[in-house]
Amino acid sequence: MRRAVISLLVVLLGLTSGCAYSVRGAAVAEPELTIDSPFSPGGESTDPSVDPSDDPDPSTSGSPPTSTSADPEADPVKNLCGLMGWADLPYTGTDKTAAPTARDYDPTYDQSCKWQTKAGELDVGVTLRYRAGKPVALQENSGEYDLNGRKVTYLDRTTDTEVQPSCVLVLDYAGGGLGIIVIDGSNKFGTICDQGKHLAEVLLAKEPKS
């Protein structure tokens, strides 16, 4: 059965919030926008039943995010959520200057961010997850391509009946690994994986030096 995802918070990735939903692009107190994470916990292929996104949300558990890097102070990405914003997303009716919906909501990553809004009756959005010093990999994928000299691996879930239409992308980033998940079943903002590719381009253009 189709997993209706969206339990909102942003991370993630973000993406990652305890106010009532009032303005698109602002924080909401709804279920989290997420899907079963296809990411491998340690950057290597593992049992697909392992889902890091099943860990408790630190915003509700009271526990701070647990860094996965050996030396958190050595994390070159100081503010992942500040490297992109609503202005980089195609959603209409959002405040382009608003903060992400959530930050650091996934304790299994060093940083995570989330941007979530409405498209009609559907929740749509983006999550980012970043791990310092370690890659982020996919347990399965649809293919890969070169983006400005960087390999991007992606998983197209637009026709997967088990999850909301989405696209997942992973790439090496600032000496670590970055995962991007775009969730959009509205068919209003273009191909989902193209949306993800655009975000990868935006983030690579602002990649901190590792």
Please state the overall shape, judged from the principal axes of the Cα atoms. Answer: globular
Number of helices: 2
Integer average pLDDT: 73
Give the SSE order as H and E letters: EHEEEEEEEEH
Helical residue percent? Answer: under 10%
Q: Outline the low-pLDDT stretches.
A: 1-33, 39-70
Largest sheet: 7 strands, antiparallel
| Neighbour order of strands in the largest sheet | 2-3-4-9-8-7-6
Total beta-strand segments: 9
How far is it from the N-terminal to the C-terminal residue, by CA?
42 Å
Pfam family, one: DUF3558
Signal peptide: 1-22
Region (Disordered): 34-75
InterPro entries: DUF3558 (IPR024520)
Would you give an account of this structure?
The protein has 210 residues and is mainly β. It has two helices and nine strands, in the order βαββββββββα. The N and C termini lie far apart (42 Å). Keywords: Signal. It comes from Umezawaea endophytica.
What's the SSE blueprint?
Blueprint: E1 39-40, H1 58-61, E2 102-103, E3 111-119, E4 122-131, E5 137-138, E6 143-147, E7 150-156, E8 166-173, E9 176-183, H2 192-205
Antiparallel strand pairs: 1-5, 2-3, 3-4, 4-9, 6-7, 7-8, 8-9
List its salient traits:
disordered N terminus, 210 residues, DUF3558, DUF3558 family protein, 7-stranded antiparallel sheet, single chain, 25% strand, globular, mainly beta, two-stranded antiparallel sheet
Briefly say what this structure is.
The protein has 210 residues and is mainly beta.
